[in-house]
Amino acid sequence: MPSHTISVLVENEFGVLARVAGLFSSRGFNIESLTVNEDPLDPTVSRIVLVATGDDQVLEQINKQLNKLISVIKVTDFKDTSIIDREMVMVKISVDERTRAELDSIVAAFRAHVVDIGPRAVTVEVTGNADKIKAFIDLVRPLGIKEIVRSGKIAMARAVQHETNHRTAAREAG
Amino acid sequence: MKKLSGAQIIIESLMAEGVDVIFGYPGGAILPTYDALLDSKIKHVLVRHEQGAAHMAEGYARVSGRPGVVMVTSGPGATNTVTGIADANMDSTPMVVISGQVATTMIGNDAFQEADFVGITRPCTKHNYLIKDVRDVARIIKEAFYIASTGRPGPVVVDVPKDVQQSEHTFKYPERVELRGFKPTRKGNPRQIERAIDAIEKSDKPLFYVGGGVQWSGAASELTQLARGLGIPVTETLMGLGSVPASDALCLGMLGMHGSYGTNTAVCNTDCLVAIGARFDDRVTGRIADFAPHAKTIIHIDIDPSSISKNVKVDVPIVGDIQSVLADMLQVVKGRESIAKRRAAWAKWHQQILQWKREKPLYENGNGPRPGGAVAPLHVLEELHTLTKGDCIIATDVGQHQMWVAQLFPFEKPRSFLTSGGLGTMGYGLPAGIGAKFAAPDRKVVVVSGDGSIQMNIQELGTAVQYGVDIKVIILNNYFLGMVRQWQEKFYQERYSYSAMSVPDFVMLAEAYGARGFRIEKQSELARTMKEAFATPGPVLIDVVIPKEEAVMPMIPPGGAMSEMLFA
């Protein structure tokens, strides 16, 4: 099933996340990831970025059902949009004299940051798209991961869009 | 400026909305607002159970087109309305429910009569509110009415904590609403309308399939004009009955699970299906893969974009208010001479459908006498038609009696058939009928129910008596949950698992409530007793005993295709 990244601009009010989350559970849609935050420029709105899976018909329904919610101001499906997307992960990794150098080289290669150092563990922060995060985790796993926390995905459209934009046609039909 | 309490602001706001009647039940958390209500001109109908209030509001809304208003207290008062709210949500019925809530300081403490009502109703309302500040009361009530009645109508809950009702603020009713996230499309896209007319013109066997949206939009006359102007036959969903006059030969009646052979065969053969304010419900389509298999084009007109291509892939979607879209279509048709040339082909198609209808009419031998002189449901509906000359509002419950009315009663006008379509709520009929009478005091209101359904909200007979509501309630009584029995007979090898029901003496029950009761056991008594009952003023209950073997036919088995219709 393809995943889609959808950005939802909502009224920043009580219960709005429950409305969006409840819509997914009551209609049987799947959410892979979800982030929500107040818009730093306009505190009356919040932005929810979610990743959902489903075929085209399901995704069309997700879009329409989200739009139907009164608290939802705008839904942007990044289906045919080239986007920049980022996730962040913090990984607490076991280290000893033997592995410290190896970890340092991985951190450097991924442009990650060491954010906390203890006698037997180092915490590293990595930011990037899902592929980069997966690659990092795969590499440090043999060293011993003690704890891991991963954020949801945030995304925005690139300033310059490539051709092949199907969205105009879809919008006219709807 | 003079300050009012939140409670007074609620009542002033309701008056500003033109509310003339509230269906409700007082209790602790809503008492401040009830106190303010006593000084207003708004009529209040004290129900016997809050579910009744919600269905009354639905009946009121369906007849008047305006939102029905419910007022209840917190906790159980609120939760008792949930079935009615869910019903209104499924059948796109505008409703505003004002519920009391425990004080803001108590919320979340499991206080006495506390329930998270906005949480409970979030999935079954169009929108809901918990008012936390008295300054928001007027704005939120304005928004609630706007949301309930604009676009695809639906229920809105406004939950008001007791301390908000008691706090004070100046009152100024907003002139308009500003909702960034709610801007329904009213006008259909002209290019899509042209495309739809192109597709209709090209087709040889066009068919209109119309639902409740036509009636909510007030588009019955535009639809009738368009159908007559083009000579295109019309089939109606349960919620769409009455959209075109049943007496018009173009009106094919109900399609779907209990649609007639001719009507469903038309759906199976059409090459251009025009869905108008309908949502391809599974009770209409049967097995979706086999629905309208020859339709080269499916056109769908609806105010709600999420209804389009939800169940059936649509070729020409038109989002907009149906009245506006049909008016635009009429204009386009008027300007096109080529389309008139199609009438001959379409008349042939219409004749073909009428031929199918004649081949297998509904209840071909159904009018005949029953063994032992028993009353058949058909006889009752014929008698009802004679007595009312066909001009009445009928509210039903859910089950066999509902389908018999839908199949057999020829509705000539929209907003005349009140029934629970989407949710299928037994217990809807009596309160909906009472609500209807408040919306249309001059129209005859009849409830047709079953012995199972009527007992689900029989207590509202007390409400009908208290307010002298002139309503006739016909119970088609077979001492069974008839539709359940029918399914058990056909699909569960006649294993009647817990579907037989003992019933009270309905005549004595009616009399105990202070209403009048009649009982009919033989066909020979039917005409005379029905006449007497209908001549009796005020609430009247008529218990008509029917044989348990009477079945709703034809029938498409659940999950089956239209072509798999059963006739016996």
What can you tell me about this protein's structure?
The complex is a heterodimer of chains A (174) and B (568). The two termini of chain A are 24 Å apart. In chain A, the strands form 2 sheets. In chain A, strands 5, 6, 7, 8 and 9 form a 5-stranded antiparallel beta sheet that branches. Chain A has a 4-stranded antiparallel beta sheet with strand order 2-3-1-4, covered by helices on one side. Chain A folds into 2 domains: 3-82, ACT domain (Alpha-Beta Plaits, 2-Layer Sandwich), CATH 3.30.70; 86-153, Alpha-Beta Plaits (2-Layer Sandwich), CATH 3.30.70. Chain A has helices spanning 16-27, 56-68, 97-109, 130-140, 167-173; strands spanning 3-11, 30-38, 45-53, 72-77, 83-94, 113-117, 121-128, 145-150, 154-157. Chain A is of the alpha+beta class and 174 residues long. In chain A, a hairpin with a 3-residue loop joins strand 6 (113-117) and strand 7. Chain B has 568 residues and is of the alpha/beta class. Chain B has 3 domains: 3-170, Rossmann fold (3-Layer(aba) Sandwich), CATH 3.40.50; 190-359, 3-Layer(aba) Sandwich (Rossmann fold), CATH 3.40.50.1220; 371-552, Thiamin diphosphate (ThDP)-binding fold, Pyr/PP domains (Rossmann fold), CATH 3.40.50. In chain B, 38% of the residues lie in helices and 17% in strands. Chain B has a 6-stranded parallel beta sheet with strand order 3-2-4-5-7-6, with helices on both faces. In chain B, strand 2, helix 2 and strand 3 (43-46) form a beta-alpha-beta unit. The model of chain B has no long low-confidence stretch (mean pLDDT 96). Classes of the chains: A alpha+beta (174), B alpha/beta (568). Chains A and B meet through helix 1 and helix 2 of A and loops of B.
Q: What is the CATH topology assignment of the largest domain in chain B? A: Rossmann fold
Largest sheet properties of chain A:
5 strands, antiparallel
Reported CATH architecture of the largest domain in chain A: 2-Layer Sandwich
* Assembly state (oligomeric): heterodimer
